[in-house]
Design goal:
Shape: elongated
Radius of gyration: 20 Å
Strand content: under 5%
Number of helices: 10
Largest sheet: none
Distance between the termini: 62 Å
CATH class of the largest domain: Mainly Alpha
Number of strands: 0
Helix content: over 70%
């Protein structure tokens, strides 16, 4: 009897997650059926319930795993720089570039995730907070270096920065990617936000 590939189960689970991205982004969370995800991933309907208790749990698992990958990559990108303004620019650029490279995934994370009552009411998005913590660290570094205003509340500032990117990302998705080019917009976002964060007299960096 031939031996199964040791990664067989993991690959099947990954296929389900990738299929969920495709189906959720095309049909929306409410409009998607588990049977459609099963068909797109090449597994039987019941197989999905081996790995996920419900469609909501599938969506949350998708969020956790993909956000973990995004957090790891963002840390790597940001740590290529030492100047906090350069780090801020890298953070904004890489966030906006996700709209181009992972359009289906970002649509699920930006729009469809908010349709899950379980996610919105009962789930603590730890990975999302880690993503925000990277931004907090950049702002703290900027304050310590004298580049960012010392009177600034870091938690408020990080929400303002993320909120601006989040709103632009959602608008881009809902407009069917017609309103602007994410990479170009990233520079505009950086220039506007960096001016608000920068301490009086601080040097203009960020290599704009």
């Amino acid at each position: 009897m031939p031996k199964k590939d040791p990664d067989y189960a993991g690959n099947k689970r990954n296929r389900i997650l990738q299929a969920a991205i495709e189906v959720f982004s095309q049909k929306g969370f409410f409009g998607s059926k588990v049977s459609e995800i099963a068909r797109a991933s090449g597994v039987a309907d019941g197989t999905i319930y081996i790995y996920f208790k419900s469609k909501d749990d599938l969506l949350i698992a998708l969020f956790e795993e993909k956000m973990d990958e995004i957090v790891v990559e963002m840390r790597r990108k940001v740590n290529e720089y030492t100047n906090p303004l350069d780090k801020l620019k890298a953070y904004i650029e890489n966030h906006m570039k996700l709209l181009e490279g992972e359009a289906g995934l970002i649509e699920v994370l930006q729009v469809e995730l908010r349709q899950s009552s379980k996610f919105m009411k009962d789930y603590t998005p730890v990975k999302f907070f880690e993503y925000l913590d990277i931004l907090s660290g950049i702002i703290e570094e900027g304050k310590e270096a004298g580049l960012f205003r010392l009177d600034m509340n870091v938690r408020v500032a990080r929400r303002i920065v993320f909120g601006a990117m989040d709103e632009l990302s959602r608008t881009y998705i809902l407009s069917k990617r017609k309103n602007y080019h994410p990479s170009v917009t990233a520079s505009e976002v950086f220039n506007l936000l960096a001016d608000g964060l920068r301490a009086p007299g601080a040097e203009n960096s960020g290599h704009v």
